[in-house]
Design a protein that fits this description.
This protein has 12 helices and 12 strands. It has 342 residues and is of the alpha/beta class. It has 2 domains: 257 residues, Aldolase class I (TIM Barrel, Alpha-Beta Barrel), CATH 3.20.20; 68 residues, Type Iii Antifreeze Protein Isoform Hplc 12, CATH 3.90.1210.10. An 8-stranded parallel beta sheet has the order 5-4-3-10-9-8-7-6. A two-stranded antiparallel sheet has the order 1-2. A two-stranded antiparallel sheet has the order 11-12. α6 links the parallel β6 and β7. The model has no long low-confidence stretch (mean pLDDT 97).
């Protein structure tokens, strides 16, 4: 998967997506400051949410109160959205800092707008993971798509995946739990492995709504190629997603530690050059465990393995020594040599 020249696969470090979402509360200046902080903390990609409320919801939404908000979902989104000109400004500001800018459209009008301003990829949230008409519409643009799969079974994801494949679109599937915040008791890191097995052609990642960086880092260790987390300039800010958002310090930790974990999980099982000095003393060498006379047929009572490991016969060859005859007297605790044995 390639987004704006950034290759996303298991051969590259995970793409860390800092999701502004609606944390800026509809204030373009706060949004731009968040982007600045995300950039300085090492993020490569900013994700926004594009809301055109009248095309996104019906009047019934004014009576629906999300569990993480004290207002109706209509009012939350209405007051926290940027207008078209502000989003264009935010996109330019983000890209001028060298970051990738993508967004989640929550309606057909939002998808058309994002395509018109030439975003390089689309993010589709878990709530729209089974919105087949919207998925078909977004797929018609032919751009890469990242789909969060929270609240949906593997079977429910088959149809969106088939739409992506029919349109020959590069796509990623993100494991996700849609509780804000998500306690570890309900988060499924196993879902990453399940998605890899069920959809081997997909890039697989993790959209994290837990508190702290640790479950995201666990996802990296399981091979997640994308990590998405809400981002805020301060956790003291009000907003429905602030409780599960990372601040600049946590983002920096996530970026740096994910690179270390990625490096470690791709190292083969072998002795490294840096371990050679330790290898010399940490192993055991076969030694005489008593005075051994010339002509003795060596038995277990005669030998043992002790440090350092710089002797000729390593402890691993213990069984190969048994039954050999000595050519000379060997002192207690003396390292054995092959030339001393028949």
């Amino acid at each position: 998967m390639n987004i704006n020249g950034r290759e996303i696969n298991e051969k590259n470090t995970p793409l860390i997506i800092a999701e502004l979402g609606i944390n800026h509360g509809g204030d373009i200046d706060i949004a731009k400051n968040m982007v600045t902080l995300a950039a300085s903390s090492g993020a490569e990609c900013i994700k926004h949410q594009t809301h055109f409320v009248e095309d996104e919801m019906t009047e019934e939404a004014k009576d629906i109160y999300p569990p993480n908000a004290t207002e109706s979902i209509w009012d939350v989104i209405k007051k926290s959205s940027l207008n078209k000109d502000e989003e264009i400004e935010l996109k330019k500001y983000t890209e001028d800092l060298g970051l990738i800018y993508i967004s989640t459209p929550f309606s057909r009008a939002a998808a058309d707008f994002l395509n018109d301003i030439n975003i390089p990829a689309f993010k589709i949230g878990s709530g729209e993971a089974s919105n087949i008409p919207l998925i078909r519409h977004i797929s018609s643009f032919g751009k890469p798509i990242i789909l969060s799969t929270g609240m949906h079974s593997l079977e429910q994801i088959i149809e969106p995946v088939n739409i992506f494949k029919k349109n020959k679109i590069d796509f990623a599937l993100l494991e996700c739990t849609n509780s804000y915040p998500s306690p570890p008791e309900i988060v499924s890191l196993q879902g990453i492995k399940d998605l890899k097995k069920a959809f081997p052609e997909a890039i697989v990642g993790f959209s994290d709504h837990s508190i702290g960086p640790y479950i995201s880092l666990g996802a990296v260790a399981l091979g997640a190629c994308i990590i998405e987390r809400h981002f805020t300039d301060s956790r003291y800010r009000e907003g429905p997603d602030i409780s599960c958002s990372m601040d600049p310090l946590e983002l920096r930790l996530l970026v740096d530690r994910s690179k270390e974990i990625f490096t470690a999980i791709n190292n083969p099982k072998e002795r490294t050059l840096q371990e050679e000095d330790v290898y010399k003393f940490a192993r055991g060498t076969i030694v005489a465990d008593r005075e051994i006379k010339k002509g003795t047929i060596i038995a277990e009572k005669d030998i043992w393995a002790r440090r350092p490991g710089n002797g000729e016969i390593a402890a691993a060859f213990y069984d190969n020594i048994l039954g050999r005859k000595t050519k000379k007297d060997i002192k207690y605790n003396q390292q054995l040599r092959w030339k001393d044995l028949i």
